[in-house]
Amino acid sequence: MHFDELQRLYQLPLFDLLKQARAVHEANWPKNEVQLCTLLSIKTGGCSEDCSYCAQSARYDTPVENERLLSCGAVMERAQAARDNGSTRFCMGAAWKGVRDGTQKFDEVLEIVRNVSQLGMEVCVTLGELGPVEAKKLREAGVTAYNHNIDTSPEHYPNIVTTHTFQDRLNTIGHVQDAGMSVCCGGILGLGETVDDRLRMVEVLSNLDPQPESVPINSLVPIAGTPMGGNDPIDTFGLVRMIAVARIAVPGAKVRLSAGRAQLSEEAQALCFFAGANSIFYGDKLLTTTNPQAQADLALLEKLGMTPQMPFTDVPAPAKATEEEAALVEA
């Protein structure tokens, strides 16, 4: 979608926007389902990047303690527990600038992935920047989706990170798509950006070819010691509007209500689900910030008459549009 279309949508009266988003949601996701995902930090802290919001950067004095890469056995124990508790997607994150083929740490990650992929869940990893070789090997090991958020607009990005560029993010996404993995790509609200920055972010996401398989919408959780530790939280209605716009712009994606959910009331979460969110991170931790407890999540879904979504491990990654399809879109 083009920016002016997104701007028009965002500026609609809230209930008009929700009405449009709900219609798109029901056309693409007719069942009252929410995907339950578990996110595990398999290597915490000590990252060389300077992302201004991140407690895992080695450049900032934060409460996060550095931890080495978890053993395969430790990860499998957590993955099996996640599956037993109802998660259908297991996401593993490592605080690195990126990974390189031929290194011990990458070989260890590949072994972890091979084992986790046998559990029947979707396997998602986020390891920083990837080249084409690394992307291909992750896919062969069993990764079904790769998370690599663009965070904000291309224009605002240099205010958030200086150790890599927005184009670096897009390059990794391209390698992931070429390797046949699905792309999990979204952003963070509350980074000092304008509404236009948020809409530009969605514009970029909606024009990826293919569009992302999932779009996490994160609300900044300010962490003491980071440059953004004093940022104000995003307004709930602003969050709901962005979820609705994302649902319309990327209709086939799972829109993930991600970081910051612990600060939302049940009523606010219900409004987010109505606007188009159909996936949550489920369990006690979301990387290094708290997440509502699993039983509370299940209780809320029961109140809303919603059920956990089944995994999509056998569904191929979205394919790029053919020339004929692209011509129809342009027309």
CATH first level: Alpha Beta
Helix content: 25-40%
Shape: globular
CATH hierarchy: architecture: Alpha-Beta Barrel
SSE succession: HHEHEHEHEHEEHEHEHEEEHEH
Ranges with pLDDT <50 over ≥5 residues? 325-331
What's the alpha carbon Rg, rounded to whole Å?
19 Å
- Strand percentage lies at 15-25%
Number of helices: 11
Amino- and carboxy-terminal Cα gap = 13 Å
Structural class assignment: alpha/beta
Mean of residue pLDDT values: 86
CATH superfamily: Aldolase class I
**How many strand elements?**
12
CATH topology: TIM Barrel
Number of separate structural domains: 1
Question: What do these coordinates show?
Answer:
The protein has helices spanning about 5-10, 15-30, 70-85, 105-115, 130-140, 165-180, 195-205, 235-250, 265-275, 295-305, 325-330; strands spanning about 35-45, 90-95, 120-125, 145, 180-185, 185-190, 215-220, 255, 275-280, 285, 290, 305-310. With about 325 residues, the protein is an alpha/beta fold. The strands form two sheets. Strands 1, 2, 3, 4, 5, 6, 7, 8, 9 and 12 form a ten-stranded parallel sheet that branches. Strands 10-11 form a two-stranded antiparallel ribbon. Strand 1 (about 35-45), helix 3 (about 70-85) and strand 2 (about 90-95) form a beta-alpha-beta unit. The longest helix is centred in the first third of the chain and has 15 residues, at about 15-30. The chain starts with a helix and ends with a helix. About 45% of the residues are buried.
